């Protein structure tokens, strides 16, 4: 089998994770070198996520992976967890439709009847009823209004 940290931690001391090479510790929210992910429990609405490429913390919005290719978190209604700029952290944003540099996709919802959130120009997003989508390189996506 593969080497990993085994054992159980007392209540409220978290998970048994590999905090340094071949060194195990109980952590309430920490980066596990074995799984290359954050492990832990946080008080709602916080999530145990990466705030740098190797530091986990209880945060409303952070990265899911060290590759920083996905933001995770629980944001208030009407906001979503995404990366606003190439070199920024994941934050709760209230833009209805905007570009997420973590996933390199447009994220957000458009109000009913205003179309779909699409990448109408590279790295630019808008609610459009019919436009060329650079995100999918598809031809005109037509939304039929009910």
Contiguous runs where pLDDT drops below 50 for at least 5 residues: 138-146
Largest sheet, in brief, is: 2 strands, antiparallel
Structural class: mainly beta
Number of strands: 16
Spatial gap, N to C terminus: 57 Å
Spatial strand order of the main sheet: 1-2
Report helical residue fraction.
Answer: under 10%
Rg calc: 19 Å
Describe the secondary-structure layout.
Elements: E1 15-20, E2 23-27, E3 29-32, E4 37-40, E5 47-50, E6 56-59, E7 61-63, E8 71-73, E9 80-83, E10 90-93, E11 97-100, E12 105-108, E13 116-121, E14 124-128, E15 130-133, E16 138-142
Antiparallel strand pairs: 1-2, 3-4, 5-6, 7-8, 9-10, 11-12, 13-14, 15-16
Comma- or semicolon-separated keywords:
146 residues; two-stranded antiparallel sheet; single chain
Can you describe what's shown?
With 146 residues, the protein is mainly β. It has a domain at 42-142. The protein contains no helices and 16 strands. The chain has a two-stranded antiparallel sheet with strand order 1-2. A two-stranded antiparallel sheet has the order 3-4.
């Amino acid at each position: 089998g593969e080497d990993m940290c085994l054992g159980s931690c007392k209540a409220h001391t978290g998970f048994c994770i590999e905090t340094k090479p071949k060194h195990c510790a109980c952590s309430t929210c920490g980066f596990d070198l074995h799984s290359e992910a954050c492990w832990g429990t946080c008080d709602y609405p916080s999530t145990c996520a990466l705030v740098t490429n190797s530091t986990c913390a209880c945060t409303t919005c952070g990265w899911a992976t060290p590759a920083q290719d996905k933001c995770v978190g629980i944001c208030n209604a009407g906001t979503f967890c995404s990366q606003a700029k190439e070199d920024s952290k994941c934050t709760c944003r209230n833009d209805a439709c905007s570009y997420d540099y973590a996933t390199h996709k447009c994220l957000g919802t458009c109000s009913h009847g205003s179309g779909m959130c699409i990448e109408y120009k590279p790295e630019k997003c808008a609610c459009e009823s019919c436009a060329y989508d650079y995100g999918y390189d598809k031809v005109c996506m037509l939304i039929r209004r009910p």
